[in-house]
Amino acid sequence: MQWWKDGLLVRIRVSPEGLALAFVYALACWGARKLSMDQFFLPAGVRVAALLLCPPRLWPYLLIGEYAYFAHLRIPLLGKYGLTWVILASVFLMPAVMLIIRLHRKLLARTTIVGVISIAACAAMVISLLNLGISYLIWEPLREETFLTNLLRYALGDFTGILILAPLALLWIRRAEEQWTARSVATTVGAVGAMLVIGLQATPVPTSILAEGSLQLLLILPIPAIALTCLLGWRGAAIGVAAVNMILGLSTPSDHPASFDQATFATQQAMAIASVALLLLGARITHFQSQHRLREEDGRAALQLARNSHLASEMDLRERAAHLRQLGDGMDLSLNEMVNWLHAQGHHAVADSLRHTSEVHSRLFRAQASMIYPAALERLGLYVALQAGGVREAWGNTHRVNQPWLMGDPCALSPGLQLAAYRSIVEAISILLGNESGQLTVRARCGRLGTQQGILLVAATLNPRQRLSQATMAMATDQLTGRVLAYRGTIQCRGNRVRMFLIEAVGTPHAESRPVREAHQDNTLGPIVPPSRT
Length: 534
Description:
Blueprint: H1 2-6, H2 16-34, H3 42-53, H4 59-74, H5 78-81, H6 83-91, H7 93-103, H8 105-110, H9 112-138, H10 144-173, H11 182-202, H12 212-220, H13 222-232, H14 234-250, H15 262-344, H16 348-372, H17 375-380, H18 382-388, H19 390-398, E1 405-407, H20 415-435, E2 440-449, E3 452-461, H21 470-486, E4 490-494, E5 497-503
Parallel strand pairs: 1-2
Antiparallel strand pairs: 2-3, 3-5, 4-5
Helix pairs in contact: 2-3, 2-4, 3-7, 3-10, 6-9, 7-9, 9-10, 10-14, 10-15, 11-12, 11-13, 11-14, 13-14, 13-15, 14-15, 15-16, 15-21, 18-19, 20-21
C-alpha cells in the first residue's frame, strides 16, 4: 500500500503530430456534417475511415478531436437539451467504434472487404442505438413506430456514410499493393465522369416516386460503377460505390440537416444493398484476378526453370564434346607423328595406310562428338548445324532422309531456342526412322508472327498418304512435348507428320548478343424529436 501514501506518478506525453491530427479530424467531421442529413451521414464514415487509417497509438488524439467536434456542436444546445444529454450522447460514440474495429482486426486481416462491411453494419447499428437510446431514456418516450423509423433512418445514414469513406481509406492503405496503370486511371476518370453526368440529369430526386424519367436515370447511375467493378475489382467497387452514394446523397431535396425525403430514402435503401453486393463482387473479382496472375507467374517460372534445366544439360554436353575434341586432336597429333616416323624409316605403304585409317576414324570421331553437342550451331546457326554436322552424315547413311528444306534466319533466335529446335528435330527424325518406313523429309521455317518470334519444325514421311502409326504418335508426343512446352510451343502429330512450333521466351536476348549477333441549427428540432445525432 506504499502507493497509497506516495501517490501515483502519471506521465503524459503530448505529440504535436497527434494534436494536428485531432484538429484535422475535428475539422473533417465539421465539414462532413455540413454536407450531411440524418439519412445521409458522412461524419460516421469519417470516424471509421480515420480509425482505419491511423495506428492505435494515435487513437487517443482522434478521441480528443471527436470531443472537440462535439463541444463545438452541442455546447450551444445546453439550454435546450440539458447537460446530461450533451455529455452522455457524446462520450460513448467513438469508444464504441474503436471497440468494434478492434474486435474486427482478425477479420480485417483475412477478408478486408467483408471486414469493412461488417464494421459498417455494426458501427451504424450501435451508434444509432446509442444516439436514440440515450435520447429516449432522458426525454419523454416516443411511440414505438417513431423509434423504429428513426433508428432505421439513422442506421442507414451511418451505414451509407461508412460505405462511402471506409473503402476509400482502405484503398489508400493498400495503395502500394495495387498498381495503377494509365489505362485504369483513364477508366476510373471516365466512369466517375459518366456517373456525374447521369447524376446531374437524374437529380434532384423527385418527391413523387412515379417520375419515370428520373427513375430510369437513377437505374442507369450504377452501371458505370458496375463496369468499373468488373474491370478493376474491389478498387473499382470502392470508387464506384462512393461516387454513386455521394451523388445520390448530395442530391436529396432538403433545407436543413434533419429533413427527410421518402423517395430518396427508398432509393438509398436499395443502393445500400447494391453497394454491399458491388463491394463483395469486386473483392471476389480481385481474388480471382490475383489467383490468375499467380498462376501465370508460376507458369512462367516453371517454363523458365525448364529452359534453364535444358540449357544446363546442354552446357554439360558442350563440355563433354569439347573434351572429346581435345582427345581427338591429341590422337591426331600422335598418329601424325607416327606417320612421319614411318615415312622416315622408309615404310611408306604402312604410313599411307595408317594416315588414311586415322583420317577416316578422326572424321567419324568428330562427327560423333558434334552429335553430342553441335558446336557449329554457336558459330554459324541452326541450319548449318543441321546441314554440315554429324547429324547430317548420320541421316545420309540411312539413305532415307532427304535434303532439309530450311527457310528464314535462325540467327535471329536465341541460342537456347536453337538448341531446343535442334534436339527436337533430331529426336523426331530418330523416332520416325525407328518406327516408320519410307523416305523422310525435314522442313524448318524461322520468322515472326505478330509480336511472337519462333521456329516451325516439321518431320514427315515423303509419302503424304502414309499415316503415322498410333505408337509413333504416342512416342513422339511423350518424348518431345517437354522440351517444346518449355518454349511455350505446341506439338501436333497428325497424318504423315510431326509438327512442332517453338516460341521465343519474352525477354530472352536474341542472337545479336551472342558471338554471332469527415450540428445542425438550433430550430431544427420539435419538442418530441430527438436531437440530430453524430
